[in-house]
């Protein structure tokens, strides 16, 4: 709402400079968002909260200034000087939708441009001046907050007004020359045969006031706020009128505005004004609100005197009576936001000044300290990933549905079952994420385009999976991406990245003391966007919990990424949560020394380290303490289809110091078993 | 000299023997102190203590000493041997350490070569700010609660006294999933969910993602909020001021001033907006604060009794306050970030600054 300093001063004679007035308004809850100097005037742009439609006018803001500064405000004394003839015929079909409709006819007007002072004032407040009659209705709207409409009387069939819903009529052409689709419930203004306006929103093209208009019918009404809002929303049409009606205008000031406008038209455009027709089937019923002084002081937290409460509420236009240990307050019709005791308390606090209320600390009983297991886990996950060199990204929860196509997800995949947004900003953000992978790929692609290298990102966020219920399942996932370009700097590892990401996860498991996990090559369940030969599933406590692998080259192309990309996904961090060990138990340190023996074998290339390890672990001996891989070698002199694996095996007995021969016996059994089961040869 | 010693030793006399030993000792001391290098020391060791060494020779000649004199001479010879040995050892240590020094000085490394480590990753600035703020409230005894991001209209609006067809809904541009399911527009949606499952006293914070159908230079469609609320029998508006003041001072420093302005939120009454003195210009006026010296940072108020009614609390019995703040806004002020769109962009050069 734009308000002029000079115009306000016509209503209340405050002694404040524009900056001071701005501060006063802001601290009273009418936030001045901008101040603009216009010629001799100053225009305030005030953010009026939806609960204060009474301040959507100069008169309303002036009332507020008067109450805050405790100085009187002048009210306009509108009255029509000379009335001739009867007012128009008005019928209201549904008084719930239109509790008040007042109208006058003005004959013999002379349409033309407005006087300069009027058009200037309108334009400084952001409304374009057109011609005198329309300008005057807009002037009154700004001044009193009451939307008005002028019909060309000679285009009104039967010269009468009927307020009735659209019913079977489903099209209507509005002033702006748009054909509007109407619902059955839309409240319309009709003449004897046709609709002539959408009530409270916009007038019709068919009865528009033009330069040749001689006689007009002036409308000032109160329409049901919800009804106007529904109409305005369904038409996607918000006007100065609908904005005020849907918040609630002052039903008691409807005729005041009508008279003000009629008198101004008679003065500026000439013409004769008829008597008023004022249909008021739903009269205003004042609310009586009781509140005790004790409650006022208790809610605010400071002692405020009874006289202060009474006086300041009266300044705001409330009627106040004593009632026992408190008051009964009756708010004026324009304060439709004040409904119960807390609303009265807010008014008192506001006028007392929030800044004058002291700061205290609440008293509260101690209670058992909260447990935040999930939040703690998320924190550990994030910190662990950063320790492994990954930076956290936070992406929008939105998904471009096309991305799933790019990931090769089959149509029956659960992640294709999207939760769509009905009103997305862009098609690329039209669904909720069912996987974090496309976001991470986009992060890498974007950073590569900006010339960045060594990209290691992770995200811990929710995905949204359709559940068949009203709300989707929201599952927190961990996903990470490792991008490696081909250049290598001095300390960089030789690996392609798979083992870096795997290592990050293993390190996380170590931090969380989770031991029951494995990485399994399982071609049947491999993700379609991963390289089928360089990927695996992650199992925690024998349950599939995620996947790890190199991005499929085709998918890399689709996301415009060059270089090597490794992806990690934990499909639900709940799986990690459930695997957390209950408590740590100390194991006694060994009493006797260990003996370490190495074993290097040559096996076929497709034998995995895990296979070899399992065989060694399977040896029936209680002196094998640990098995550590220390080398994998391919190349001369090993044949092309073979590789060498070297393990260091640590032997230890809990009962005694082992002798060489005891160790040798087990060590040679290991070799024999490897030879037999893996066709391994000892590498000499 | 050696010749003389050998000659005097050929014919035994007590005095002669003592003189000989004393001479050997003196000679050894002189020679050891004149030694130039480790090799000299080794040579002297052979000369005095070797198989054919001077002192060894005396030891061998013990047999030719009268029996009764042997123990005394034995002791004297041993003491002399220890004496020479200790001189030799001392000098040897000196040479050794200086030679080590010399050789170490030639084994230089380039200490300016970068160290070897996994460069640490960085937490997103939003996570860092959220953690800091949550930590402050957790230390005050607040519990962390979460709610769904895809939320029922009921919890996001209805229960918070935003009726359908009410203009208050215009305050928040809403993404709709269906007629009664929305992307939560604020973390206040957690309030009634928590109240339904627990009874007062309540001290709760609810951090998380929220969504508004709005994107321009100063708005992003997904951002982060932290909702806090407290409900008990005697909670006052003044307590809200106290708690928020404490919080702001912890995050922005004790010199930060606060300003409480009346405002409107359907779910609080009285409602307030809280400004802090501009952390960029300290209140003198700049671009960030639009020249006013104040920056809006929080929305808050006393929880509206209508919310208690929805949750099944007795509004005559309980009072409480609620507040909400935008995390991106706090992060921007804290780090001097001038474009909110940097947060969801995830540029590595941005992330690595935090
Ligand atoms: Zn500033």
Set down the secondary structure blueprint:
The complex is a heterodimer of chains A (684) and B (354).
Chain A lengths: L1 E3 H7 L6 H10 L3 E8 L2 E7 L10 H12 L19 E4 L7 E8 L8 H9 L7 H13 L3 E5 L7 E6 L5 E3 L5 E3 L5 E4 L4 E4 L3 E2 L12 E7 L2 H11 L4 H6 L8 H15 L3 E2 L3 E3 L9 E4 H8 L5 H10 L3 E5 L2 E5 L10 H12 L20 H15 L3 E2 L5 E2 L2 H5 L24 E2 L4 H13 L5 E11 L7 E12 L13 H15 L4 E4 L9 E11 L2 E9 L1 H6 L5 E7 L2 H7 L15 E10 L4 H9 L6 E10 L8 E10 L8 H19 L2 E2 L2
Helix pairs in contact in A: 1-3, 4-5, 5-8, 9-11, 10-11, 12-15
Chain B lengths: L1 H9 L3 H21 L3 H12 L4 H7 L9 H37 L18 H15 L3 E2 L5 E3 H4 L19 E3 L2 E3 L6 H8 L4 E10 L10 E11 L4 H16 L5 E8 L2 E10 L16 E10 L1 H7 L7 E8 H9 L6 H4 L2 H4 L3
Parallel strand pairs in B: 1-5
Antiparallel strand pairs in B: 2-4, 3-4, 5-6, 6-10, 7-8, 8-9, 9-10
Helix pairs in contact in B: 2-3, 2-5, 3-5, 6-11, 8-10
Key phrases:
heterodimer, A: 684 residues, alpha+beta, Phenylalanyl-tRNA Synthetase, Chain B, domain 1, Phenylalanyl-tRNA Synthetase, Chain B, domain 3, 5 domains, 7-stranded mixed β-sheet, 5-stranded mixed β-sheet, 19 helices, 30% helix, 26% strand, elongated, B: 354 residues, BirA Bifunctional Protein, domain 2, 3-stranded antiparallel β-sheet, 10 strands, disordered N terminus, binds zinc ion
């Amino acid at each position: 709402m734009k308000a002029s300093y000079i115009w306000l001063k016509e209503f209340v004679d405050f002694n404040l400079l524009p900056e001071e007035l701005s501060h006063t308004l802001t601290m009273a809850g009418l936030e001045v968002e901008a101040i603009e100097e216009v010629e001799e005037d100053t225009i305030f742009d005030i953010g009026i909260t939806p609960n204060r439609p009474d301040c959507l006018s100069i008169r309303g803001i002036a009332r507020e200034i008067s109450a805050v500064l405790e100085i009187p405000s002048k009210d306009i004394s509108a009255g029509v000087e000379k009335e001739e003839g009867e007012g128009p015929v008005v019928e209201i079909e549904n008084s719930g939708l239109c509790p008040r409709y007042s109208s006058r006819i003005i004959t013999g007007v002379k349409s033309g441009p407005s006087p300069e002072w009027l058009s200037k004032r309108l334009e400084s407040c952001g409304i374009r001046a057109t011609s005198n009659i329309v300008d005057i209705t807009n002037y009154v709207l700004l001044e009193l907050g009451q939307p008005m409409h002028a019909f060309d009387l000679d285009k009104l069939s039967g010269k009468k007004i009927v307020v009735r819903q659209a019913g079977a009529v489903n099209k209507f052409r509005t002033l702006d020359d748009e054909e509007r689709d109407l619902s059955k419930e839309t409240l319309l203004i009709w003449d004897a045969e046709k609709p002539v306006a959408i009530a409270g929103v916009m007038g019709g093209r068919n009865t528009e006031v033009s330069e040749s208009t001689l006689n007009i019918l002036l409308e000032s009404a109160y329409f049901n706020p919800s009804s106007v809002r529904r109409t305005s929303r369904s038409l996607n049409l918000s006007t100065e009128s609908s904005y005020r009606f849907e918040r609630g205008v002052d039903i008691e000031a409807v005729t005041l505005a009508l008279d003000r406008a009629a008198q101004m038209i008679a003065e500026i455009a000439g013409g004769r004004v008829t008597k008023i027709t004022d249909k008021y089937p739903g009269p205003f019923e004042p609310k009586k609100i009781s509140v005790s002084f004790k409650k006022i002081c208790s809610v605010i937290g400071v002692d405020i005197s009874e006289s202060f409460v009474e006086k300041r509420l009266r300044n705001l236009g409330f009627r106040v009576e004593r009632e026992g240990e408190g008051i009964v307050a009756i708010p004026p019709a324009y304060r439709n936001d004040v409904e119960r005791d807390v609303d009265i308390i807010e008014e008192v606090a506001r006028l007392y000044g929030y800044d004058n209320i002291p700061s205290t600390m609440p008293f509260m009983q101690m209670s058992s300290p909260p447990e935040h297991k999930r939040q703690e886990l998320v924190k550990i996950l994030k910190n662990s990933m950063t320790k492994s060199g990954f930076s956290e990204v936070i992406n929008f929860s939105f998904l471009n549905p096309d991305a799933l196509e790019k990931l090769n997800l089959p149509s029956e995949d659960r992640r294709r079952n999207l939760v769509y947004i009905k009103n997305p900003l862009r098609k690329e953000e039209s669904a909720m994420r069912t996987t974090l992978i496309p976001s991470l790929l986009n992060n890498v692609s974007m950073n590569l385009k900006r010339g960045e290298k060594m990209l290691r990102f992770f995200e811990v966020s929710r995905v949204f999976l359709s559940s068949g219920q009203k709300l989707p399942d929201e599952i927190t996932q961990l996903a990470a991406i490792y991008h490696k370009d081909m250049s290598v700097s001095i300390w960089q590892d030789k690996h392609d990245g798979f083992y870096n990401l795997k290592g990050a996860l293993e390190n996380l498991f170590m931090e969380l003391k989770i031991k029951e996990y494995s990485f399994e090559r399982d071609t049947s369940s491999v993700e379609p966007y991963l390289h089928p030969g360089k990927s695996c599933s992650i199992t925690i406590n024998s349950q599939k919990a995620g996947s790890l692998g190199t991005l499929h080259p085709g998918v890399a192309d689709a996301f415009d990424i060059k270089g090597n990309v490794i992806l990690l996904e934990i499909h639900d961090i709940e799986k990690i949560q459930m695997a957390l060990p209950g408590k740590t138990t100390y194991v006694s340190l060994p009493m006797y020394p260990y003996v370490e023996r190495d074993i290097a074998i040559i096996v076929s290339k497709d034998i995995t380290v895990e296979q070899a390890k399992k065989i060694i672990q399977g040896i029936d001996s209680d002196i094998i303490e640990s098995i550590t891989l220390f080398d994998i070698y391919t190349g001369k002199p090993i044949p092309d289809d073979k590789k060498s694996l070297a393990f260091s095996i640590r032997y230890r007995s809990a009962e005694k110091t082992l002798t060489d021969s005891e160790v040798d016996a087990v060590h040679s059994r290991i070799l024999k078993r490897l030879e037999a089961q893996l066709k391994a040869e000892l590498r000499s | 000299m050696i010749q003389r010693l050998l000659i005097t030793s050929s014919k035994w006399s007590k005095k002669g023997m003592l003189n000989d030993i004393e001479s050997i000792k003196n000679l050894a001391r002189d020679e050891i102190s004149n030694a130039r290098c480790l090799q000299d020391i080794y040579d002297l060791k052979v000369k005095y203590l070797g198989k054919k060494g001077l002192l060894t020779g005396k030891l061998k000649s013990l047999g030719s000493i009268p029996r009764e004199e042997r123990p005394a001479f034995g002791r004297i010879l041993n003491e002399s041997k220890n004496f020479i040995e200790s001189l030799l050892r001392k000098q040897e240590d000196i040479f050794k350490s200086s030679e080590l020094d010399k050789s170490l000085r030639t084994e230089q490394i380039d200490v300016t070569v970068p160290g070897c480590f996994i460069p640490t990753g960085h937490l997103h600035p939003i996570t860092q700010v959220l953690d800091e703020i949550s930590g402050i409230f957790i230390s005050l005894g607040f519990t962390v609660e979460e709610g769904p991001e895809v939320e029922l209209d009921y919890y996001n609006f209805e229960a918070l006294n935003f009726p359908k067809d009410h203009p208050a809904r215009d305050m928040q541009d809403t993404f709709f999933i269906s007629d009664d399911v929305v992307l939560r527009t604020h973390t206040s949606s957690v309030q009634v969910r928590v109240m339904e499952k627990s009874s007062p006293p309540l001290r709760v914070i609810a951090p998380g993602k929220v969504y508004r159908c709005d994107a321009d230079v100063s708005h992003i469609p997904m951002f982060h909020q932290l909702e806090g609320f407290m409900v008990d029998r005697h909670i006052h508006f003044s307590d809200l001021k106290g708690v928020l003041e404490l919080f702001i001072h912890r995050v922005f420093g004790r010199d930060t001033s606060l300003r409480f302005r009346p405002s409107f939120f359907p779910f609080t009454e009285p409602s307030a907006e809280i400004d802090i003195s501009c952390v960029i210009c300290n209140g003198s006026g700049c671009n960030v604060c639009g020249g006013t010296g104040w920056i809006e940072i929080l929305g808050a108020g006393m929880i509206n009794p209508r919310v208690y009614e929805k949750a099944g609390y007795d509004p005559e019995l309980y009072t409480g306050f609620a507040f909400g703040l935008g995390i991106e806004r706090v992060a921007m002020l804290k780090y001097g970030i001038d474009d909110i769109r940097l947060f969801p962009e995830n540029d590595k050069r941005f992330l690595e600054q935090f």
